[in-house]
Amino acid sequence: MQATLALDLAPIARADRWRPAELAFWLIPVAAYFIFPENLVLLTQIAITALFCLSLDLILGYAGIVSLGHAAFFGLGAYAAGLLAAHGYGDPLIGLAVAAVVTAVLGYVTSFLVLRGADLTRLMVTLGVSMMLYEIANKLTDITGGVDGLQGMEVLPVLGQFEFDLYGKTAYWYAVAVLFVLFWVARKLVHSPFGLSLKGIRLNVGRMPALGAPVNGRLSTVYTIGAAYAGIAGALLAQTTQFVALDVLAFNRSAELLLILVLGGSGSLYGALLGTIVFMSAHHLLSDLNPQYWQFWLGALLVVIVLFARDGVMGGLRGVQRRLDAAFGRTK
Amino acid sequence: MTTYALQTRNLVKKFGGFVATNDVSLNVEAGARHALIGPNGAGKTTLINLLTGFLEPTSGDVILNGEPVTHLAQHQRVKRGLARTFQINRLFADLTVLESVTMAVNERIGIGARFWRPIGAYAEAVDEAAQLLATLRLLDLAHEKTRNLAYGKQRLIEIALALAMKPRVLLLDEPAAGVPTSESRELFETIAALPRDVTILLIEHDMDLVFRFADQISVLVSGALLTGGTPDEIAVNPKVKEVYLGEAISV
Amino acid sequence: MAFRKSVVAIVAALAAIPALAAEPLKVGMVLPMSGPFAAYGKQIENGARLYLKQNNDTLAGRKVELIIKDDTGVAPEISKRAAQELVVKDKVDILAGFGLTPSAFAAAPVSKEAKKPMIVMNAAASAVTTKSDYILRVSHTLPQITAPVAEWAAKNKIRKVYTLVADYGPGQDAEAQFKKTFTAAGGEIVGEVRTPVKNPDFAPFLQKIKDVKPDAVFLFVPPGEQTVAFMKGFAERDLAKAGIRVIATGDLTEEDILDAVGDNALGIVNSLQYSEVHDSPENKAYVQAYYKAYPKDRPNYMSVSGYDGMQLIAKTLEKTGGDASGDKFVAAAKGMSWVSPRGKIAIDAQTRDIVQTIYIRKVEKVAGKLQNVEFDKIADLRDPGKQ
Amino acid sequence: MTVIFDGIASGMLLFLISVGLSVTLGLMNFVNLAHGAFAMLGGYVCVTLLNRAGVPFLASLPVAALATALAGVVLERTLYRRLYAATHLDQVLFSIGLVFMSIAGAHYFFGAQQQPMVLPEFLQGQFNLPGLDIGIYRLFLVVLSLAIAYGLNRLVRGTRFGAQLRAAVDNPRAARGVGINVERIFTLTFALGTALAGLGGALGVEMLGLDPSFPVKYIVYFLIVVAVGGSGNIMGSLVASLILGVVDVAGKYYVPQIGAFVIYAVMVVMLIVRPQGLFGRRAAR
Fold it and tell me: Domain count of chain A?
């Protein structure tokens, strides 16, 4: 039999290699630093939202769990890091670690609630969990500062070296570095057997048990990981803004995130990143141009995208690539 | 003494007042080519679901290789050597054939939850999947997306995924359902060529295939076992003829 | 689009070089222009622009350029981003606006680090001015508008009060301040309840109040539909007939909301620094100018904060000779006093917070329009939250 | 007793503002998060007629419903219909886009402030029975909700239109095959859903207020009712609204400290116990 096996295994064996386009993509944050030195806070927040979006992509895009309450983890992470910094433990990396652990625990516990039921139920259960967290944070004014926000955060320099500055340089590189590392990890995850089994679950959840895969176990694992990612994103926002208020837990944040991911194209790590870049840049530009009615144009943009570019930004890019390939007579 | 690969004892499943499976005690010998036949609505699908663990029985037991597995979940029964195919394809449309089968192999050898090294790093799994595709003569389609395959080929993938479990007992749920005759021959040849140490329980409508393939036949009617025996015995059994009367089949 | 500039150049531009009088003065405002608090942003902008218009966009001889950024309401990271960009990119001389407390808190470090004056025009938490030495407030603090109505109630035969506040930071602060002042003056709190912030139905709480029969209810909820809903329920249940009055902070009956509350608002006693019908020549002129510029809106206390913010800038620049650099500006602004449409006001030299007269008002119909008619006052009140 | 009545009334209000969504989401399987935008439109139409044109309240209600339905039909014909076959996520993206536009539009035309609304005399106040105070407007809401629920249920379960609708949703191709005008059915149903949204919005102004952020402010409530009731099930929505309303009001009355949690906690618990909703169709697996 061995002799008959004449199959090129490269497509599967080397699926995880870095493509030139990817390397080029990661030059964008470097280039952006020099091109837009006056917008570093925006760029930082784009990087943070991209990480947050990545976390939703892991659970929605790869594992198919819809969520309208992902801000629960983002907010919890933000408060974890914020409270640490407000009580004298201002080292940013420790803050990230603690936020990750705390949110992972919440993610693991709530995963059992979330995994029951179908899509609409999941949407609502995740929503319910996040709304309850919001109410708790609102109630515990003594600890969280309530709607007025958590005061007295003292964030120490990153690695004891780099102080957070007015221009947001440190914050920017810090956020981009964390995003890159976690993206790299997520990429490994996605290309691993675990990642493959998640795709299997999303594509045909009914078949997986018949292949001996413990579906709920896998899903609660990825939900936990997604939660930790979201928690880290929240912690980053808290540290770079040096302030936390209730809105980190708000419904709008969850809904907007879902929007960004769908816009970018779920089920692709770069979709999450590109969606964030497009959405937040559009938001920023439109609200600068027209502070009162920018929402109208943003809404119009969404409607147009759904009607004419259905697969999100990534779908559009793939379409362009296909056309280029066809033009140059390449075959895939 | 005969060893049984798969047995049920007094298996009962009720949906409300409706008895879908009525006191079924089925014995499938190790290594057998056992067919389960019955008219539409006889409860074949329910029985399969009870055997695989998709449903829990109201009462009675399922015994796999001498051990009761009645309360084990589906994936745990798979780990004990019980694999199945589905009457309606349950495939992974956006994965390639090789990815699908590799995923199945990953699960069997217990690396399905490894999250750090890439799929390609577990060469033994990929190689085994490729081997399996080779035996099923699917190698040239290895890098095709499942959704792009002809239906007959997709039915083969159904079987390939089950075989990747290295099952001791394989449940084939109407493997030829919906396959045009032009493609069905290849399918039957593949099934006939499966190694003898795999016990096969076949659920099938096509009587030609059943009588050509099976060495044992059980007949299910209205949720209960009507009778069982060798193809020759079943062929002359008046009760079976009565049940199938009007279905116009020549036996 | 901005192109690459060396960091040195930015720093140089930022460094507090005494501005030449000829150079335009850039004022960057961070306001909620969209979202649920858009009305705040609009009023503040209206007031600020009105003052600029009246002065030909020139304050103390310097042309003024107003840059407005939307922070969508409660989104501190956007407020901070807006403030930072205004400073770093637009190179504004003065930060202003800040509709809500978290926005002010989030932006405070920017003002502190960049040494830019930051004029708070609405955010009401007492602690806001302590977050940067460059913060000046021209609006009010929550304790400042809560204590007077408590004092008035205790003096005017209201012995038993039931407090109903929304269950969030400001609500809790208002509750605490009211209780403190009211009980110190001899009043009795006969019941208290905190209602959920997003609360479409006050029926259960109103029923409880009706059962207890206090002399008055002290109300503090987010201004807007909550006030409307409460007063509707109050009227529906005939609580007024049961002899129960409503006392509140005046932001709940401000001119923008008053029409939505409708006649149900009649008789509410409240305390605030500004009313459209405040009787002074300055206010008459202000109201007239406002209606001329914005025929569709009614002037309220937020618009006056925007107006006074600009007036503060003008008066301070006159004193510094056009120099808007942080330290000089703030030093000059401390202790500054002037006559606003709301009356005489001043900036406290220690706390940089506002000192002003708080009026006790009652909602009445004046020429067919609901108005807060002033009938008592506590003059020159400092922020009780800082004492 | 009064607490229970208030709970029922509050539940009915929930029902009124969400039943339109139950129609579009449940019956047409379209995730129309712009539901609140249609409700807001109904609210503005009603308020404008009342305050500017002096139309009586009761007359302005049907006008609000009709005007909203008209807007719904126009949007359905031009935009929505292209997305029936799209994924739910696309539908979410699209309808949120509409929500954004509607918020900015309302802000532009009506300003950011709350809209005033005065009920006619005969709907104001309350009458008192021993141990029970009944607000007249609340009673009006209860009666109206029950009528709507009854009518809708009859329409969907008991008429030819209902049967055609169910056929058209379950299998559009087969429905077309037997001569059902699927496009027309969908347009009519969408019109019905938006009309109900408009009516709910108009009725809700009195208790919920009306400003441009209305579509997002109450979206959570719409979703809760529909999810708990089981989408597409009118009776389910009614019962779910009742339970949520009564529990919510009772919770606030007896334990105000946890008032805000009650509705979410009840929702989560109900969904955990009955993941398909109270009366949801059990998913055939």
Answer: 1
Helix axes of D57-78 and D35-48: crossing angle, nearest 10 degrees: 140
Find the CB nearest A39 among C87, C89, C167: C89
Q: Decide: helix, strand or coil at residue C380.
A: strand
Phi/psi at B221 (5° precision): -135, 130
Enumerate domains of chain C plus CATH numbers: 2-140+279-352 (3.40.50.2300), 143-272+359-386 (3.40.50.2300)
Give dist(CA D18, CA D91) in Å, integer.
18
Name the average pLDDT for chain D. 82
3-state secondary structure at position C250: helix
Each residue's pLDDT tens digit, A200-251: 998 988 889 888 888 999 999 999 999 999 999 999 999 998 889 888 998 8
pLDDT digits (tens, 9 = 90+) for C237-281: 788 888 899 999 988 888 888 888 888 888 899 999 999 999 999
Domains of chain D from N-terminus onward: 2-112+121-273 (1.10.3470)
Owning domain of residue A227:
21-250
User: What CA–CA distance (Å, rounded) separates C328 from C334?
Assistant: 10
Q: Is the pTM of this model over 0.90?
A: no
* Distance (Å, whole) CA D277 – CA D233: 9
Q: A211, A216, A311: best mutation site toward chain B, by most B Cβ within 10 Å?
A: A211
Q: Which residues lie closer than 8 Å to D75 by C-beta, 6 or more apart? A: D98
Contact B83, B173 (CB under 8 A): no
| Residue A192, domain member (yes or no) | yes
Q: Which domains are assigned to chain B?
A: 4-90+165-250 (3.40.50.300)
- Residues forming beta bridges with residue C378, ordered by sequence position: C358
Q: What is the ipTM of this complex?
A: 0.82
User: Environment class of residue A11 by beta-carbon count within 10 Å: exposed (0-12), middle (13-18) or buried (19+)?
Assistant: middle
How big is the A-B interface in CB pairs under 8 Å? 148
Task: Render pLDDT for D25-46 as a digit per residue (tens, 0 to 9).
Answer: 777 778 888 888 999 999 999 9
Angle, vertex CA A14, rays to CA A12 and CA A18, nearest 5: 130
Burial class (CB in 10 A: 0-12, 13-18, 19+), A29: buried
Q: What is the DSSP string of D140-207?
A: HHHHHHHHHHHHHHHHHHHSHHHHHHHHHHH-HHHHHHTT--HHHHHHHHHHHHHHHHHHHHHHHHHH
Are chains B and A touching, using the cut-off of 8 Å on CB pairs and a minimum of 3 such pairs? yes
**Min CA distance, D58 vs chain A (Å)?**
32
DSSP state at residue C20? P
User: Whole-angstrom Cα distance, residue D279 to residue C294?
Assistant: 53
State how far the alpha carbon of B203 is from the alpha carbons of B46, B52, B135, B218, in Å.
Answer: 12, 14, 23, 10
Q: What pLDDT is recorded for position C46? A: 94
